[in-house]
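User: Teach me something about this protein's shape.
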Amino acid sequence: MAFCAKRWPIAYVDRDMPKFRRFVVVFLGAIAAARCGGAPSTGPDKTPVPSIAIACDAPTDSTLKCRASVSCGASPCAGTPTDVTASATWSVDSSIVQLVAPGSVVAPQTFLTGSYTNLRAQVPQMESGCQGVGVFPGVSSPLPTFVLVGRVYAGSDPVAGAINGATIQVISGLSAGFIAQTGTAFPVSGWCTPPTAPAAGTFVLYGIPPGTNRLLIQAGGYQPLERDVTLTFSGPPATIDFQLQRQ
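Assistant: First, the predicted structure itself:
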């Protein structure tokens, strides 16, 4: 830029100059330095805080094995390990599942199926990781659980046609019996993702494990709808849309 090429003598201030003028010269000089790549800012560096994400593999026996990976968002984690499974401090409610190795949990000898807890991994100066886990009937190992989000609407526009008060029930699968309602916050706390009031026409199902679940969607004045939704060990699908037809 022509402004920068002139290399204005911004550090020079005439001591006989009135105070106000001296202030203006110094102020404009600071702006010029910033624009021309002059003295660096004295503010603190905005270094991203590494965060831990927990992912679990499909179990081959009675043990659920999870790992803790580290990321810094879009920025590289300079000097930070990408996997902290072995070095992290792991915690879980031992009355529901028990830690047998870093990131590895089993169901206790006596347990209640349909019980849930959070598996956490912590490392100093990192945002801790959290993954829901649960035990289910007919499954020897614990399973990771996820949050399933969907929208129920009428017409062609999911936003304009949002239906509040629709009931979503899991009628088959490991989560059979789970119920949610569009536009209504989940009433129970203690999940990795804190329950919040969903948007109009949106429902949230917590504690859903990998596998296929059949959902029944019902709303007054509309034809009921059934649909299978499959979750993998990588997590739930993106927001699912359910379009209802008037009776």
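Now, about its shape. The first helix runs from residue 2 to 5. The longest strand covers residues 143-154. If you'd like, I can walk through any region in more detail.
User: That's plenty for now, thanks!
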